[in-house]
Amino acid sequence: MSVSASSAVLAVSGIGKTYAQPVLTGIDLTLMRGEVLALTGENGAGKSTLSKIIGGLVTPTTGHMQFHGQEYRPGSRAQAEALGIRMVMQELNLLPTLSVAENLFLDNLPSNGGWISRKRLRSAAIEAMAQVGLDAIDPDTLVGELGIGHQQMVEIARNLIGDCHVLILDEPTAMLTAREVEMLFEQISRLQARGVAIIYISHRLEELARVAQRIAVLRDGHLVCVEPMANYNSEQLVNLMVGRELGEHIDLGPRQIGAAALTVSGLSRADKVLDVSFTVRAGEIFGISGLIGAGRTELLRLIFGADAADSGTVALGFPAQVVSIRSPADAVAHGIALITEDRKGEGLLLTQSISANIALGNMPEISRGGVVNPSAETALAQRQIDAMRIRSSSPTQLVGELSGGNQQKVVIGRWLERECSVLMFDEPTRGIDVGAKFDIYALLGDLTRQGKALVVVSSDLRELMLICDRIGVLSAGRLVETFERDSWSQDDLLAAAFAGYQKRDALLNEAAPRDLP
């Protein structure tokens, strides 16, 4: 494709951004009408910063932009959106206490005589939700009651309403099911046909090959490639992104799987988790697979004491000793850690430094008489920055200035300073680039060699198949099957993920009243 600045919908020239240090330098890029431009690179490479500059959330330090040939200097996200430049970010821009319909049309609620027209609002919301496959959800449902995957689809639907010329999608499929991904790709095709230009940010290279015409690769804040997508395969793109070769397989090193470390028996809560039992051994990685809404996160929250179970027990060690876990504090006291999927909402203080965030769970290590020792706090943070390869200017850098992958490393680093025998990871590599993923996989291997028992929830089946010793599949709240390494396939895992829903639907159909002749 021949691209010229004069015919571009959007053109950026010499764009740079400096915080404590440069994060973007001299970016020149154009975006054409009706094309999908893939934007990829390691976490910390500058992808989110560049997209936020285009979307009006961040002001560039250097350079300028043009939109339809006119100077473009948005002072806010609202100004960018008014021009038709929309951005779906990893950090969802939704209000959990409002309904789906209200979130979709918050800036343009239909009214009648000064009152909100609920009928028109509901009708418009149903139409917007149908575009992204949310037909089964009541538009009056509070957003806070939805899982994070469905919230992501609501955010996408919100940004497709109205006149859209440029759409930026930042890791849009990270928490979506296969069906929702297909719905998104169908919508992308429709948008292209309407002439909408799309910047598609993702680390899932197979998706980029499917949807994008060109690819732009960032590395350490520099643009190292802008080429037709067809010119590169996944291996070549990875090498461009990380500046080194990565294999398709991972060797977690010599490990010895020991006796049971965690035993879950008959754990249940309402209709979310139903009579779930499993055992995880010391030195083992036990994966949990399933569709969005299957109860994966809810199960981890029950084990961790974040939610109260209706029935069932959690036991530690061998022979198993049942422990009372009524709160996360109880779980931590018993040596159980949970690295949550929502790192921003539940895992981090974004306005605080790296050192303060890592210190949060380790106050006895760095304080005396209730007073924090600054040098001890800094040393603690630096140890994890080095161990986790966290890209930062110093331990004092604010966590909110880090990329998503580096923020996740801060969360993990905090727990690694504690003596936990059981560590549960909920989507540990969500939104993390391929290079950082392998860093975290290696870390998981290190933990198992220390005799830790690991539970890993992931939406990426290939990830689970790569790192796990066993995989349990949740379906409609039940653990329907557990697979041993070398006895699973992707098809088998997917079939099990749907099995519980098929069984549940069959039982509901049998129980449904039948019309008499």
TrEMBL record:
<keyword id="KW-0762">Sugar transport</keyword>
<dbReference type="GO" id="GO:0005886">
    <property type="term" value="C:plasma membrane"/>
</dbReference>
<keyword id="KW-0067">ATP-binding</keyword>
<dbReference type="InterPro" id="IPR003593">
    <property type="entry name" value="AAA+_ATPase"/>
</dbReference>
<protein>
    <submittedName>
        <fullName>Sugar ABC transporter ATP-binding protein</fullName>
    </submittedName>
</protein>
<dbReference type="Pfam" id="PF00005">
    <property type="entry name" value="ABC_tran"/>
</dbReference>
<feature type="domain" description="ABC transporter">
    <location>
        <begin position="3"/>
        <end position="245"/>
    </location>
</feature>
<dbReference type="InterPro" id="IPR003439">
    <property type="entry name" value="ABC_transporter-like_ATP-bd"/>
</dbReference>
<keyword id="KW-0472">Membrane</keyword>
<dbReference type="GO" id="GO:0005524">
    <property type="term" value="F:ATP binding"/>
</dbReference>
<feature type="domain" description="ABC transporter">
    <location>
        <begin position="257"/>
        <end position="501"/>
    </location>
</feature>
<keyword id="KW-0813">Transport</keyword>
<dbReference type="InterPro" id="IPR017871">
    <property type="entry name" value="ABC_transporter-like_CS"/>
</dbReference>
<dbReference type="GO" id="GO:0015749">
    <property type="term" value="P:monosaccharide transmembrane transport"/>
</dbReference>
<dbReference type="GO" id="GO:0016887">
    <property type="term" value="F:ATP hydrolysis activity"/>
</dbReference>
<keyword id="KW-1278">Translocase</keyword>
<dbReference type="InterPro" id="IPR050107">
    <property type="entry name" value="ABC_carbohydrate_import_ATPase"/>
</dbReference>
<keyword id="KW-0677">Repeat</keyword>
<keyword id="KW-1003">Cell membrane</keyword>
<dbReference type="InterPro" id="IPR027417">
    <property type="entry name" value="P-loop_NTPase"/>
</dbReference>
<keyword id="KW-0547">Nucleotide-binding</keyword>
